[in-house]
Amino acid sequence: MGWKDNTRAWRNRPASPSRQADNREITLLVLLGVISILLWHSPYGGYVLYPFSILATWFHEMGHGLAAIAFGHDFERLVIFPNGSGYALHVSEGQPSRVSRAVIAGAGLLGPTIAGCTLILASRTHRATKTALILLGIALVGSTLIWVRSTTGWAVLPALGAASLAIAYYGREAHRRFAVQFLGVQGCISIYSDFGYLFSEGGYMDGQMQVSDTGHIEQALLLPYWFWGGLITAIILAMVFYSLKIAHRR
């Protein structure tokens, strides 16, 4: 009986300070995500989140471009329009393989979530937090110089890069951690604004038919676009879940 009473007493102990801190951080991340989604539905929320919408487009198009480079293609330019849409132009010598076409298309859809989860994981330690902000700042400024060919990109991306570097070098640790987690959340939830795009074959833009990324995967791998939309959605949810779980594991 004594052993059972001791066990019960142990179970009823309050959570440790580190566990309480973990729970508060998870709650904060979820709250940031919910607030961001609500802002998208408010009259002026899109203006408040506009820089992060451009950042999400940059993640998306850089996903296409870097995947193209990995397959030996030439990543020529990245264009972001004022409405937040954009494209990454890449060319290859000869006919690209079905696999490369599918992977390059999918990399854009997964790019924002991969970046967001990476930033959330980086918030585990002080050193990783600072390093993530520095690398993000360098990537934003460097990619603008190398690939970006649009006024919107030139106006927003270097400013975000400079802000990231400033926080990394001059911000307090709490501010760095919040910045990394906030940017990570923005990357992870950006798929929300593209959810309809995931389950679309494409549409007309300026009188020309534009095939969606899942439409390109369908053309390369035959299965219907909605199957690939569902699969990518499942992958995104799994990445977000496990990144949160790992980031707050002691």
- Main beta sheet: strand number and arrangement? 2 strands, antiparallel
The chain-level mean pLDDT equals: 85
- First and last CA, distance: 32 Å
The strand line-up of the biggest sheet is 1-2
Pattern of helices and strands: HHHHEEHHHHHEEHH
Shape: globular
Helix content: over 70%
Radius of gyration: 21 Å
Q: Label the structural class.
A: mainly alpha
Unreliable stretches:
1-15
The fraction of residues assigned to DSSP E strands is: 5-15%
Number of strands: 4
The number of helices is 11
Task: Outline the structure in words.
- There is one protein chain.
- With 250 residues, the chain is mainly alpha-helical.
- The protein is built from 11 helices and 4 strands, in the order ααααββαααααββαα.
- It has helices at residues 2-11, 17-41, 45-48, 50-70, 98-122, 126-146, 151-170, 173-193, 195-198, 213-221, 225-247, and strands spanning 74-80, 86-91, 202-205, 208-211.
- The strands form 2 sheets. Strands 1-2 form a two-stranded antiparallel ribbon.
- The longest helix is centred in the first third of the chain and has 25 residues, at 17-41.
- The protein is globular, with a radius of gyration of 21 Å.
- The two termini are 32 Å apart.
